[in-house]
Design a protein that fits this description.
21 strands; four-stranded antiparallel sheet; single chain; alpha+beta
Amino acid sequence: MVLRVFSVVLLLWGLAGRSSHCQTPFVGIVNSDTIRLDDFSREVGRRRALSSTVGKVDDGAIVEAAWNSIVADVLITQEARRRGISISRDEMRSVLLANPPDYIRQGVTDDRGRFDAGLFAAMMLQPDSLVRARAGSSAPSSAVRDEIADLTASMNELIDRARIALLRDTVRKAVIRERGLDSASMFREFKKSAAECRADVVLVPCSQSTEQPTEPELQTWYERRSWAYAVKQPMRRLATLAWPLLPRKSDTLALLADVRRFVKDCMALPSGRRRDSLFYVAAVNTSATMTMVHPDSASVRALVPLLAKKKPGDVVGPAIVPAGVAVARLDSIAGKGFRAVVIVSPIEPSTSVVDSVLAIAKEALQAYDAGAQLGSVASAHGRTIEMSPWFTEADRVYGSYRLADVAFQTPVGVACDLVDTPDRGIVLAVVADSLSGGTKPFEAVRDLVREEVLRERQCQQRLRYMQGVRGICSRTPEGVLFLAERPPDATILREIVIKGNGMVGDDRFDPTLADVAVHLDGPGLYGPILGDLGWYIVNVTSMTQPSSEEFPLYLAAYGEALTLEMETSIFQDFERSLRQSARILDQRWITFRY
């Protein structure tokens, strides 16, 4: 069910040299438009590379985000076509040349770091002449052709991305013009934001008690506040049987063989752009990072002897590392270490392992479909029934977005298609419960209820103490807060502004306290008041309530940001409706585990 990254790389590399009439693998269809495997893999790789620069890479989330992005682009393109909005590549090329975006101005520069308009025009309009002029007459013709092809592809991708962005902006403006903005909600936002009071504040956090609530306490709390757990999105829950997928020794050997072949294919190419192109096809489709390979680096130490006596640009591997099998492209030598781009591929179970486990799971599925009870099926196959948490269609179940997808396409009581999940392996799932909307069941919010009850307990433990704090607070004739003594653990804030938008002073956000404070009767000493950050005693010295005459001034100051927020909400609703009405065939599971 999951192709190894190097197998995918070699497949895509092979496709590049085929004639255009050959059938191209695809990962999905949106209405009538096909999403090709190579386009989708490139988007997954791009997002994975970006993610690797900021922290841990979550492959499932990356595949899901790439899918949602491409589906959204296809739907916008189709909507633009329906509205008669079209932008050709030539038109988009002219737009980019006339007004290059900032990222191009910062990336295409001359020796002084200034934007080079002539170079950018040559890259867009004359990539052939530009490459040949820079390469010189002595450059190998194959290397020149490869560089021309790479530059042309990069420019076409830039044009396509800019074209989608312009189409989205054009459709967005049309949708907002049709639906209009809600001026009444603007005025409500104005009243909320403009209300404020100036006050002295004593803030005491709730206790840090960890005494856990009992089950009856959780049930009672839920029953009293069931209205607070209402949802609009449908929710479901599954009864599941799982068969883990564990790699065999032969799978490690097969992956090592794949990597050896990949390294051999790279090194068979002359050092330079074509070799780098093949290597980076793999790099953008897996977990690849620029790494300092050093004898002290436990995670990639095995690559050190392979990189010894190699030249920059050489590709080496395979090496067994804790995270799987590694291959590296040497960038430079730094003392006893090496700076290299390292690709690590986890050791996955082979197709034969997956097929054998899948065959067992299919037998179980057929037995259930034939009328056997799920408990009997579980007993016959040595499995245990596990209830999934409640989830929406956008959630992950057992690390898999696909399991949630198929669950919402399956009636209650019916078994879903078998799904290969990262956390549980092959899963046979039966839709046990379905909720179209309304109050979430207690089981779905148990953890949330526990947190709420625990916080309520922690805060109530401080109530008597806060009543004592209120007793030592007084207000002078001038309206200043006076404390007979400083309460332990208290934060004293003087002459701060509490705004209706939730800001308490310059650096605290407590919308619960703010909503109470700006609606008090006037200057005076109030409390204890329970807010989001703890208990408060509030000495209000002055209050400001919004006046309708000030609304134009508010619009002048904040109208642009508020308008943008409302327009964004309108267009997000529109895009959501496009997706809900679309016919989408999702075939990602054939290639990707998500």
